[in-house]
Design a protein that fits this description.
The complex is a heterodimer. Chain A is mostly beta strands. Chain A is built from two helices and nine strands, in the order ααβββββββββ. The chains are: A mainly beta, B alpha+beta.
């Protein structure tokens, strides 16, 4: 293995990064964003902290029951600035979830406000009980 | 960027070094998701030639609930991050995000021009710019001789 960057180890990520952004070989850090998930009468709601991600840098995909969120962070710091104290590193966010069959994939809605993503995962309407006619022999 | 490095690139230990790098990067990746025990919000302080720049990751805070103050060269940021209104405590299936009041105090390394301080908040990142105060001129103090006696 010649390249050991985290970015290249994740096969699903290469498909998510738009080709227009800077060279894919640039090393970038990748983080697991903290999330909250809770139930409502309508279904599930997911919150994820994605500081530094705007709506154009966010990619949300559902494929084969897997919901993947990828947020690209544009660094605001200028190159000339010198770091005096560092508590966090700037990097992109990636996390994926397996959705249950109860979730109605077509009605998933997402909103990004102040670096927090809210995804509504509504429950699929329950199938009506169907009467099966029994034909007598 | 390698976290861990020893020897030369052609060193036989190069592969080991790379493996350790990879391991360490993996560790930092896992730790980032687990925010328990870490102070909220995380801050970075940068210095440019004419100012200090404080960056803080505070996703989901309303601007009206963000409080940035400075006194005696100590910058204080505080606010409250509320849990989603409609969520009841017993409906959570997973709760990793920080909720509640928070406060950070950052002592600045040098004098700053408190009137020139600006702050903006975008996409959940707070950025406070603190221009450095011009160094004060040397003031000569006259020594009086006591001629009373």
């Amino acid at each position: 293995m010649t390249d050991h960057q985290n970015v290249n180890k994740l096969p699903e990520l290469s498909a998510l990064i738009p080709a227009t952004v800077e060279e894919p070989t640039t090393p970038r850090l990748l983080f697991n964003p903290p999330i909250d998930i809770y139930e409502t009468p309508e279904g599930l709601v997911l919150y994820a902290d994605l500081p530094g991600v705007d709506s154009s840098g966010l990619d949300l995909q559902v494929q084969d029951n897997r919901l993947t969120l990828f947020g690209r962070v544009t660094s605001l710091e200028s190159e000339s600035a010198q770091m005096l104290h560092q508590e966090y590193q700037v990097g992109d966010f990636l996390r994926s979830f397996i959705l249950s069959d109860e979730v109605d994939h077509d009605r998933i809605q997402a909103k990004l406000t102040n670096g927090v993503l809210r995804v509504e995962l509504p429950r699929a309407p329950r199938a009506r009980p169907r009467r099966i006619e029994v034909s007598g022999g | 960027m390698p976290v861990f490095r020893w020897g030369q690139p052609w060193d036989p230990l190069h592969n080991l070094e790379r493996e350790v790098d990879r391991l360490l990067q993996g560790v930092s990746m896992t730790l980032h998701g687990v925010r328990f025990g870490r102070s909220f919000p995380q801050v970075n302080l940068h210095e440019t030639t004419d100012s200090y720049i404080l960056m803080a990751e505070i996703p989901g805070n309303d601007v009206s609930e963000l409080d940035v103050t400075i006194a005696a060269n100590c910058l204080t940021i505080k606010g409250t991050r509320l849990p989603p209104e409609e969520a009841r405590e017993d409906t959570f299936r997973r709760q990793e995000r920080f909720h509640g009041p928070w406060q950070r105090k950052i002592q600045l390394p040098d004098r700053v021009d408190e009137d020139g301080m600006t702050a903006d908040y975008s996409n959940g990142v707070l950025r406070v710019t603190l221009p450095k105060a011009p160094s004060s001129e040397v003031r000569r103090i006259k020594v009086n001789q006591d001629n009373a006696q």
